[in-house]
Structure formats: C-alpha cells, structure tokens
Amino acid sequence: MSKVYFIGAGPGDPDLITVKGKKIIEKAEVIIYAGSLVNKEVLNGCLPEAEIHDSAYMSFEEVMEVTGRAIVEGKTVARVHTGDPAIYGAIQEQMNYLEEKGIEYEVIPGVSSFLAAAAALKQEYTLPEVTQTVMVTRLGGRTPVPEKEKLSSLAAHGSTICIFLSVGMIEKVVEELKNGYTEDTPIVVAQRVSWPDQKIIKGTLADIAQKVKDEDINKTALIIVSPVFKNQGAMSKLYDKTFTHEYRVGKE
User: Fold this and answer.
1) HEC profile for 45-102?
2) What is the CATH class of 113-230?
3) In terms of Cα–Cα distance, which of 201, 187, 8 is closest to 107?
4) CB–CB of 128/237 below 8 Å?
5) How many CB atoms lie within 10 A of CB 31?
6) What is the model's pTM?
7) Mind listing the pLDDT tens digit for each residue in 89-108?
8) Which residues in the chain come in under a pLDDT of 70?
9) Could you state, in order of their start, the residue ranges of all structural domains in the chain?
10) Do the strands 105-108 and 30-33 form a parallel or antiparallel pair, or are they unpaired?
11) Distance CA 179, CA 103 (A)
12) Which terminal residue of the chain has fewer beta carbons within 10 Å of its beta carbon, N or C?
C-alpha cells in the first residue's frame, strides 16, 4: 500500500539515522530529501530505480505534486528531513495537506543536532540542583518568534537553552542572554555536529562572539548556553544507595 514516511535523518553522521528510517529509505520508490542539510550518504542502499528529488530546489507545491503523483501510482514516498523533523522541520503544513487529501503517512523520529551536540561534548544537559529544564528556541529573523518567547525572556530562567538558526546573529544572541546569565557563563557553538568537519567552539558570554567570528562560523551551527557546563551538579538520586524507589530499597 502506498504511504508517505517523514523520516528524521539525524544530524549528519549517516550511522545516526534510525534502523526503521533506513529500512524505509531502502524500499521507497520515491525519495524527497532536504539536500541543503541532509547528508546524501543516508540514501545509500536505496533502490537503483528510486526517483530522488532534492527539496532544497522545490517549493511546497512542487513537493506535494511529486508526493501526490507517487501515491496515485501506488508508490512508497520517503520524505527525508535533517535531525528530527519535529523541530524546525516545516512538516506540519505537509502533514495537514496529506490529511486533507486522505493520504496515509507516518513520522519516524530522528536524532536532533542538540542531542548529538550533547554526545560530542560528553555533557548531560540536566544536572540535579543546577537545572532540570532544556529549552529549544531561536532568534526571530525572517521567521519571527512570538513576543513572549524572546530570548531575553527565556534567559531569565537560567536553564539549558539550545538556540537554532541564530549563529549569524551571535552578537544579538549574547546580548539577549545577558538578561539571565552572567558574562562568565559557559556557552558552546557546535557547527555541523557529527559530520567529519565538525567544529566545537567553547567560550563564555564575554568572548564567544569573537571566537565564532574568528572561525568564520555563520550558519549550520547550534548555540548552547547552560550552567551545566560548569559541571558542579549534585549526585543523582537515581543511583544513590540511600534513596528508595520502586526497584530498590535505600540503605544507609
């Protein structure tokens, strides 16, 4: 039966796509992938006769036309997005369209770059007694953000914030973050995380903007600010020998 699959291809490393996502790509007769961000190596193993389209050069209408035609022809469509498509993936409008047309679809999650960055940094974003909150956001640009979600407002919480699509405005990011963080707060910029040419820039609010400029980083990078980078959290209760939970009785 024909069906559309939205697939999160992961942050770049082709090995970070899920097994389920890879299996769909290998059997899909039509593949539409976000070529400006998705590593084309994730398409390795696809059918030799598969019809492949790069959506970087396509409008919404063109993507839907190719999708609709494939469904009428009884084909499986793999719509391949970077990271996890639930975050800045622009898939809601596509799913709404498929709903209206009565076309069956499924979403297969992927590894977001903010999680791949944590792995590369060997860092947990939620440390006990430091922060238990992770925010995913962006600065307003050509796509605005609601007034109540301005970065300066979110910064007041002092939690871990992962900022997408904003490295080209790093000075403005820093200025807004100062509403909740001191200048010595650690901040990281991760460019093309998990790709062979990955760059990880570490600094503080005082110096990160200049470091980013020195490295000529202006796109495809994630900004992460957090007190957890000071690595001063308390021990987790989960494995505390004195802590009782459903599976273990604590002992003094």
Assistant:
1) CCCCCCEEEEHHHCCHHHHHHHHHHHHHCCCEEEEEECECCCCCCCCHHHHHHHHHHC
2) alpha beta
3) 8
4) yes
5) 24
6) 0.90
7) 999 999 999 999 999 999 99
8) 1, 232-252
9) 3-108, 113-230
10) unpaired
11) 46
12) C
